[in-house]
Amino acid sequence: MIENFISPEKIVTEDVSALFSTDSSISVKVLRLDKIHPVVSGNKYFKLKYNIFEAKNRCSEKILSFGGAYSNHIRALAFTAMKEGVRAIAVIRGEELNPSNYSLKYAASCGMEFRFVTRQEYRLRNNHDFLNSLREKFGDFYLVPEGGSNSLAVKGCAEIIDYINEDFDYLAVSCGSGGTAAGLLEGLSGHKKLLIFPALKRFEFLSDDIRKLNYSYNKRIFSNYEFVPGYDFGGYAKKKQELTEFIEAFEKRSGIPLDFVYTGKLFYGISEEIKKGRFRPGDRIVIIHTGGYFYDEDESGNVRKL
């Protein structure tokens, strides 16, 4: 069982107000989901939890999913499938395995198999005929969508709310595929406000995807959220010196690790929104640290955080 190697009891809330604002009346705290496991970190556990249960309930011997070459979802799925004794297959957007790509090398070491496809082919990941072609190649499998975002991910991510032992006015989360945001909305059940910071430059589709996820899970649609765009730094997995410097300074002062794809942009965005006056004195913000770090290897084989 996935709970046998995950430690949700390690989740804590840390006060970082002093690092974000000179106005001591604005409270900023971080829910450290990243602490539960070094690989199945943060929201990955909550997204995969019920999908793994369902795959085993169906007696599925294989799980197939989609992701980019540096996907933390793929790495987490590979590890979890290995622990659960299930064969894992990943359809990867991009070129063949790069020797410096630690994420895919790690997934391969867990026994995961890959099929590398072009970006054009990858766009067919929800196409019925394309999925059938994968079944012809690999046999029958339990399908987990890109990013792990489906109705079972919503069910798992709704439980994140149970770990917040603080009163708050706003939740803030980064967003790539919408599953975590949809789950948080389900957990909030229409109360409080969820601020969603897109990790993508073109994020307009996410609102529709989030609505579909919520409706597919519990036939409900929520409106207590707002997208906060403008902190993607050029697009998904793009970064600039300003973001790098912010992450380095924040990590040094807080001891909380960030990545440049999701959490770094989220924390930077909160910092800027406070400066712009979005929040009022007395407002209480909880940032969801969704975990997941990106790595590669240098020529000597040393693993380094990107």
What can you see in these coordinates?
There is one protein chain. The chain has 306 residues and is an alpha/beta fold. The protein folds into two domains: 182 residues, Rossmann fold; 106 residues, Rossmann fold (3-Layer(aba) Sandwich), CATH 3.40.50.1100. The chain is 38% helix and 19% strand. The chain has eleven helices and twelve strands. Strands 1-2-10-7-8-9 form a six-stranded mixed β-sheet. Strand 11 and strand 12 form a beta hairpin. Helix 3 runs parallel beside helix 4. The protein is globular. The two termini are 31 Å apart.
- For the secondary structure, the number of strands is 12
Percent in strands: 15-25%
Sheet with most strands: 6 strands, mixed
Give the overall pLDDT as a whole number. Answer: 92
Cα Rg:
19 Å
Q: How does the helix and strand content classify structurally?
A: alpha/beta
Uncertain parts: 295-304
Number of helices: 11
- Overall geometry comes to globular
Spatial separation of the terminal alpha carbons? 31 Å
CATH architecture of the largest domain: 3-Layer(aba) Sandwich
Please tell me the total number of domains.
2
User: Helix share of residues?
Assistant: 25-40%
CATH topology of the largest domain, which one?
Answer: Rossmann fold
Strand neighbour order, sheet with most strands: 1-2-10-7-8-9
**H/E series:** EHEHEHEHEHHEHEHEHEHHEEE
Q: Return the CATH class of the largest domain.
A: Alpha Beta
